[in-house]
Amino acid sequence: MAFLELKNVSKHFGGHSVLSNVNLSIAEGEFVAIVGYSGQGKTTLISLIAGLIKPDSGEVSLEGKIVQGPGPDRGLVFQNYSLLPWLTVYENIALAVNQVFPQWDATKRQAHVEKYIAMVKLSHAKDRLPKQLSGGMRQRVSVARTLAINPRILLLDEPLGALDALTRATLQDEIASIWQSERKTVVLITNSVDEALLLADRIIPLTIGPGATLGDSVPVTLTRPRDRTALNHDPEFKRLRALVTNQLLGFNAARKTSVTKKLIRPEILPEDLDAPRVNRPPRRPDEEKRESIQIA
Amino acid sequence: MSKFLEISQLVKTFPTPKGPLTVVRDFDLGVKKGEFITLIGHSGCGKSTVLSMVAGLTEATTGGVILAGKEVVGAGPDRGVVFQAPCLLPWLTAFENVMMGVDQAYYTASKLERRQIAEYYLTIVGLGEAMHKRPGELSQGMRQRCGIARAFALSPKMLLLDEPFGMLDSLTKYELQDVLLDLWQRDQKTALMVTHDVDEALYLSDRVVMMTDGPEATVGDILEVNFERPRTRKQLLEDPEYYRLREYLLHFLNERSHHRPGKAGQPALAHA
């Protein structure tokens, strides 16, 4: 039986069909990346899995139980970190841990929080407020908070989208190594084919809306741990990269409808704004050509 | 043949509390008319400083820039700039934002001709349906489309692009790269673009100029990209040469960018 299963899930918003007939089945411990364009329902899909919204038809089930609402068995990491600005790193994580593990004594909870802060390498910054952290550090807090509630499945909604390339690479490596040690089931939403290839066991492209659905999955059999530089030499990496990119480009090409429209580009040249203003019609490129011929 | 754009011995020094800091030193580059050049390097290496000196927004400490036989002094409409943030006026529609410059640069033209120019470029970048919306109603990608239309509409001699797609997701980026290439080809412009995306540099440019890390950044190496045009991403992704060049650039960024090239000679290109 599948660990996470979506059966014929559809979702509309105000008459707009966002997702239609989404079928997905994920095994325990699997790392799946869903790749798609902005605004095509990626976040809607993850919100459905998280139980933040309900499908109009079809069902989402986790370990055989139908998802009715949000719960600590599904940990969510958002692109915008969603930390409480008045709480420190430690307090942000402790808030979640205290909620989920009220039966533990205080020492155990404290040790648990500190373990996850250490895992994302923020022990030196645990008493800082979010505003005193860089974007990458904030996202680490958010990852630690999610892991600390020990969810059955991790849902990552473009977690690295707002970060610069270098920080993004560092965090990708951290996510990969945490996944190696914790072996959680992960659903990663991303728009980067390279990120998906680096992290996932399986890539599923999301088609283009209205009524987007999941395309055919592409298994990624590259050996782990995957090294960014070494991958660049890997023929299988190149093949997968071309395959997934072309699939996505294909969706987009199919969306484009050609419109025939009459467009006129007047054949005139801009004026020199440093020179005094002139009072004559605009010059045309063919006149300029004639001038230069005369000079020659 | 003389160069269309000539950057010579460019130096930029900023005063800091700890004394002057030389960000860029001895930067030399010649660009032919119609060429597409990308400047690639790590964040903060001074790529944007070079671009901003060519734009005339920053004054060079020593050295200079000559565009089409004229020295660059200050900013001007002969150089169209596209910034990372589209920098549109939020209270004007996309159309009005483009018209703002068009009304200035084409002040001798009729109102109709000016409108036609703005409509032409906005339609080509894909804002035909949305040109009367304000920036607040447009997505990040749409706003950047408007920024591109605004730059091209003034028919500048040269286009300067400062990481124009840095804030976009990778798939929107693909679309906008195609929009940019399409316009560049139609209008046969000369372009200088700053990026740190290796794939973007290879897809767009005729030559990739690799910059060493700052301070005292300079040209570390130049890579010729000879793929046929028009290029398609599909064809590039299947070309072994593409991966060879990609590796060459990645190797530069990972290893070689930390050293200024020695005087004895620049490392030769590893052409097979």
Please explain how this structure is put together.
The complex is a heterodimer of chains A (296) and B (272). By secondary structure, chain A is α/β, with parallel strands linked by helices. Chain A has 2 domains: 4-254, 3-Layer(aba) Sandwich (Rossmann fold); 259-295, no CATH class. In chain A, 37% of the residues lie in helices and 19% in strands. A 6-stranded mixed beta sheet of chain A has the order 6-7-8-3-9-10, sandwiched between helices. In chain A, strands 2-1-4-5 form a 4-stranded antiparallel beta sheet, covered by helices on one side. In chain A, helix 2 packs across helix 3 (106-119) and helix 2 (89-100) runs parallel beside helix 4 (135-148). The longest helix of chain A has 21 residues, at 235-255. Chain B is an alpha/beta fold. Chain B contains 8 helices and 10 strands. In chain B, the strands form 2 sheets. A 6-stranded mixed beta sheet of chain B has the order 6-7-8-3-9-10, with helices on both faces. In chain B, strands 2-1-4-5 form a 4-stranded antiparallel beta sheet, with helices on one face. In chain B, helix 3 (111-124) packs across helix 4. Chain B starts with a strand and ends in an 18-residue tail after the last helix. The interface between A and B is large, with 41 and 39 residues.
